[in-house]
Specification:
The chain is an alpha+beta fold. About 30% of the residues lie in helices and about 25% in strands. The relative contact order is 0.13. 4'-deoxy-4'-aminopyridoxal-5'-phosphate (PMP) binds next to α6 and β14.
Length: about 375
Amino acid sequence: MDVGTIWMDGEFVDWEDAQVHVLTHGLHYGTGVFEGVRSYDTDNGAAIFRWEDHLDRLYQSAKPYGMEIPFDREELTEATLELIEREDLPSCYIRPIAFYGYDMLGLNPGDAPVKVAIAVWPWGAYLGEEALEEGVDVAISSWRKFASSQIPTNAKTTGPYVNSVLASLEAEENGYTEAILLNKEGQVAEGPGENLFLVRDGEIHTPGLAESNLDGITRQTVIDLAEERGYTVHADATISRGELYTADELFFSGTAAEVTPIRSVDDTEIGSGTKGPVTDEIQQAFFDVVESGDRRVHVVHREAEVAAVRRLDRLVGLDQLDGGIVADAEERVRDRVAPLEPLDGLVAEQVAVECDGFVEVRDANCRVIYGHTCPFAPRHQ
Ligand code: PMP
């Protein structure tokens, strides 16, 4: 992996220094929680898709394990932004992870410290570019998805992913691209790393959250996009195995897999055996949104800007912003920066501010000396 820097426990460290002790609790018992997020290179610059929702899920995932993540949302956001900037990766996959480190190796993590890391790396289409167009061949796994009476299925916990690993290995060994797991009751749950959608008679169905699947952020996006387009979406469906084979269309959704058509299940062709029209429409709508940099979904734009404005406030001694909405922040900065007096050796012309995505302070040689290093903004020349 061609990545130079990883953020670990509050510091940016070189790739080779991002190490943990071999007696790490999370290594022995899988007591970690994590996220998979994507940043897209958009006309507005890098845009992290639904970052706020991923943060929500990360903190929620930690709850059943009594894990207190020792960094707040703003710290994780800033760290991620800076990583994207440092690695120059406006389009990337982002992996935040929190896990119990070493204290003693009893099952109960006790006083084990909670370690946190974030890595970013380039990642193209998870199941392949061709898969996005042609669809994937999948098989029903002989492994069942664990039930939430066994392990919380709404938490994204590292240990239970061995279930997904087994299903993926089996699918690949048998010549399939991906698996579908049934739940304990034998109904359709999801893919090893994807939610599943079924199209029948122009209506869309997806297993409800009680079917042992993860509450996917892409799943919710798909539901919203489909409903906006007038589709009836059954988001609480129970789908039997048999219904898969007779579906008009099937597709996966997920941060990594995005919206990927399924063209066959257990060698049975689904619909026309390629991407169906409803899948095509939803997939197009999905890419339109994620590649748009639309602030309604790429919330981090706003967060980044507000954070930057706050930092600028600190720098220039303005009043602290109260974390209001962006429009407010933007206006305050526009209004207030123009008449800046010399400050800390800087003169007003050296303070370049434009909150519509870009805030920075340059020295007389035009080097950025104070940076809103917001990678979301189009670069100013
Ligand atoms: N199910 C499982 C088991 C997953 O690992 C993922 C990927 N996080 C998903 C569904 C899809 O979730 P999301 O859309 O939030 O990536």
